[in-house]
Specification:
Length: 437
């Protein structure tokens, strides 16, 4: 049985009849997910930083997706020395060493290959939507099923070779048991006229190579084995810090890698079906600008599955409109805690309805000072079973709650790279040997 973490402090109350009280959220209430809204520069990153640092000091496992890099830089300075060995530092922009994430590695749970392929296809479909079509999807889906079934894992680097090298394709298919995939390649794909086959696969090759030609990305998704096991990450309360800076990687690469991480985390959570719920160790997934990272498993799917497997989501975004339309109601319906810093007019109207602010104008949410927020949450009733709504409360959030630890950043990065990263030159050499065979 896991010890119950202390309540999470958010800030101090500034309600009319309740000022200066430290407002906290119980661990049990946090399990029901959290959503944070607010324009750039209003205090979201500081709040996220405080929440994550609190969780680190409570010994919890967390994954953090940061599309800007600044939050991760701050967190690296705040890692307690006794948690140094728990950190996996994932920085794709590092040009000397690479941490591997292979989406085609067989999932931890039997039967989840279908889910993994489905999420992978969804990622590509959203990223390549301008040129997506039924034939491209058919080729990609059957190829992914063939590759993910290999007893010795292969990566996305194998995709072009599977489609263009008959000898390699034959070798792969010898290890495939799925009759539909076998029939597709042997009775359809291999019988296409050469000119038609080349025309059919060219869009797939063009798109795949656009990613694989990128040396930063190739060394991450091109390794056959991931640098760490995501189920292990969750079960052992490890810390995954993902610096997915769009400025350094490009928006498409940042979104691809973040979506792959979310997919791997969700698959790991689902694999916990093999242990009783009370033995599932809590893990928190923090996603800043969450809309960038839900190209695979979408928010409705994640929310519907996460809680029973002890995966808690803390999502942040600047505006509601940045979320997919089908996800907005899901967020409000599944996040027991909703927080709003200063927002624009449309968001203010939507959040006013969510907060049931019948007596206050929506402009109240548009005029909030920096670092002040409205909060609505569901809290356990006194009987410990039923949840009751509380709020909205006005909260003055805390400034950064901890001072940087001496040499924390250098210590954490060095330890993580030694354990989980490989020299890029070594990775490239291995990939080149595979492609030249």
């Amino acid at each position: 049985m896991q010890p119950t973490p202390l309540p999470l402090p958010i800030g101090t109350t500034d309600d009319t009849f309740d000022r200066g009280r430290v407002f906290t959220i119980l661990a049990e209430d946090r399990r029901k997910h959290m959503a944070i809204f607010g324009k750039s520069g209003v205090g979201k990153s500081t709040l996220l930083r405080n929440m994550i640092v609190w969780d680190l000091r409570e010994g919890l496992g967390v994954t953090v997706l940061d599309p800007h890099g600044g939050l991760i830089e701050d967190l690296l300075d705040c890692i307690p020395s006794d948690r140094t060995n728990d950190v996996v530092y994932f920085s794709p922009k590092d040009r000397t060493r690479a941490v591997s994430v292979n989406i085609l590695e067989p999932p931890a749970a039997d039967g989840h290959e279908t889910l993994a392929v489905s999420y992978l296809i969804s990622i590509f479909k959203k990223i390549w939507g301008d040129s997506w079509g039924p034939r491209m999807e058919d080729i990609l889906r059957n190829s992914a099923f063939a590759l993910i079934e290999q007893p010795e894992p292969v990566s996305l680097v194998a995709l072009p070779k599977l489609l263009t090298d008959p000898d390699y394709r034959k070798k792969i298919l010898e290890r495939v048991s799925n009759p539909v995939v076998l029939a597709y390649f042997r009775d359809e794909y291999d019988k296409w006229p050469a000119s038609f086959r080349q025309e059919a696969i060219q869009p797939v090759l063009n798109k795949a190579r656009a990613f694989l030609v990128n040396p930063l990305l190739r060394a991450i998704i091109g390794q056959a084995r991931s640098s760490f096991d995501f189920r292990w990450l969750m079960d052992k309360s490890k810390i995954l810090l993902c610096d997915l800076s769009k400025g350094a990687l490009g928006e498409d690469v940042s979104s691809l890698l973040g979506s792959l991480i979310v997919t791997k985390i969700l698959l790991a959570a689902l694999s916990r079906q093999d242990i009783p719920e009370e033995e599932r160790v809590p893990h928190l997934l923090y996603a800043d600008e969450v809309q960038n990272f839900i190209h695979g498993a979408d928010l409705p799917t994640i929310f519907s599955e996460a809680r029973k497997y002890r995966l808690t989501l803390v999502i942040a975004t600047q505006t509601i409109n940045q979320l997919p339309r089908e996800s907005v109601d899901v967020v409000f319906g599944n996040c027991a805690t909703v927080m709003s810093f200063r927002v624009g007019g449309e968001d203010a109207e939507a959040l006013k309805r969510e907060f049931v602010m019948t007596t206050l104008p929506a402009s109240e949410l548009q005029d909030m000072p920096d670092y002040k927020l409205y909060l609505r949450t569901l809290m356990l009733a006194e009987d410990g079973r039923r949840s009751r709504p509380t709020g909205p409360h006005i909260i003055d959030t805390f400034p950064p709650m901890t001072t940087p630890e001496a040499n924390s950043k250098e210590r954490v990065i060095r330890t993580s790279l030694e354990r989980y990263a490989r020299p890029r030159a070594e990775v490239e050499e291995k990939i080149n040997r595979f492609l030249s065979r």
